[in-house]
Write a structure and sequence with these properties.
It is a single chain. The protein contains 10 helices and 10 strands. With 263 residues, the protein is an alpha/beta fold. The chain has one domain (3-257): Spore Coat Polysaccharide Biosynthesis Protein SpsA, Chain A, CATH 3.90.550. It has an 8-stranded mixed sheet. It has a two-stranded antiparallel ribbon with strand order 4-10. Helix 1 (14-23) links the parallel strand 1 (3-9) and strand 2 (32-36). The protein is globular, with a radius of gyration of 18 Å.
Amino acid sequence: MKYKIFIINLDRSVERYQHALAQLAAWPDLPIERISAADGRVLSDAELNQYYSLSLNQQHYHKLLKPGEKGCYISHIWCWQQIVAQQLDFALILEDDFIVNGDLAGLLNYVCSLPSDWHFLKLAMPNKQQKIIQASAAGPWQKVAFVKNPVSTVAQVVSNSGAQQLLAKAVPFYRPIDVMLQYTFELGIRAEAVWPLIFKPDLSFESNINTKKREPNNRWVFYWQRLYFFWANLQHNLKHYGLSALMRARKWPNPSGRTHLSN
């Protein structure tokens, strides 16, 4: 299969790119391509408005997006576009602050062996452990689905069909990229993961996205969206996995008793 590893990296962040390459040094034959990240602080309104919708943001998200959040989302869009333009079967998309601890070559070989019905595979879960609702047969690697798609976009695999679907449904954007990708029922993508999760973010780097400035928070939109997400995600899970699987997920934190990298 034809695939690449895309590393999203700001031009000014030379140290972060060298760190990323060092993380992948154990696999010198893997095809790596640097994606020059979009810098939301310097893009013009015209450039941003090719991808970002202020009106949708005000309707469907509780605060305005920061320049770094806009740049991060646009950088992922550029990766999706490259998957399609280069006619790749899939790409491993990495933000440049990742740590990898596991058999990356084995993981990619596993992805190559999967049937072509998947769209998006998470490879990291740095925050709250999400419950697993479905898992493939036990083995060195498993494809799993979560009750709620984890946040963070530090590491994921996107198929060609997944990239096309995201370009059709996730643009223009109005939420942060990691939040938008939780709304799989709107995007029409199969968002799953490969277990064990061998990536996590390197917290020693200062964030290029978060700033101390706080945007005004529309609490009404916040609570309305939480209620909407809860019901829409519940309906999605019931439709695709069934009530028994959803109930079982409450007692099934991870397959094979294995913990993920961030524990």
